[in-house]
Amino acid sequence: MSFKINLGNWNSIFAVPTKVAEEKLKLSSASQLRVLLYVLAHNNINLTNQQIGQALSMHEEDVKDDLMYWVNEGILSFSNNEYSPSEENLSENNTKTDILQNSEKSDKKQNINDSDETSLKPYKTIMTRAQKPSHTFIAQLVSRDKTLVDLLNEIQMSLGKTLSNSDTATIVYLYDTCGLSAPVIMMLVQYCITINKPNLRTIERIGIQWADEGVETVIDAENKIKDARQSNLDFSKVSSVFGIHNAGTPSAKQLSYSKKWVSVWKFSDEMLREAYERCLDAKGEMKFSYIDGILKRWYNDGIKNISDIENKQNQSKIISQKKAQPRASRLEQKPSYDINELENMSFLDDN
Description:
mainly alpha; 18 helices; 3 domains; 4 strands; 4-stranded mixed sheet; 351 residues; 65% helix
């Protein structure tokens, strides 16, 4: 998807909204600020998340998350594949009373939020689920569910920021619609903080995955976190062997390949490097799918080290030579007849 940011009166200069400097600078992450500054500096230019990611050495999914952060914070709005300055003012209160007041914001603001999220469509899974709860529903739920109020306040303290209306809706969505318990959601938030992804888009995305995969208890969540950390370690090993630097957040496919090669098939650094170099020789570039094909063949053939590869190649040469030998021998054999005698036989005489 290609998009263009139209900054209106900001087009003639590289401007940063005062609200960012006064209210968001302390609470926003470094990557969120980098993405905002980049798109503001390149206004009126068609950009893709991939292009921004390449320019900033970030994964395109992280770029998408960070742009959505600024939409949720009321700095940008998104419509018709175009970002523009937002007129929305999001509340910044964190008590139960303030949460109730936030929930009574005008329907106009709610419509803006809903319209922006629908237009962006960052994750297919979200589109197949029920819509996020309305502010009225959130107010009613907060008024009778102390566990939810405590969860929202604890998340605010952990993230070091006040939850916006959209942030609160995301947490309530995970809690009430997806069915994740408060302890599980809190573990999810803490995990995202440890991986330097303390934004609601990442929390929402992983939370939906957990709900789809049946995570119900703290033990389930611990297992998911343990598995995710191991997958990241596996990718770190692969990226180190392949010489990938500043790769950003790996894609789900890259994590899957790395986990299979390292944790399941248990290939050594030497074998990973060999497969990588063979891929470069054949394709001229690194392709995870091609490397996977090489390693899969080695795994199925029981090849575990370079010596096994050499032995396999030698065996193949011997087999090829044996298959070619009988034919060559027949060609070299001396004829079982004398051509001179055949020429003297009568049936060869001309009539």
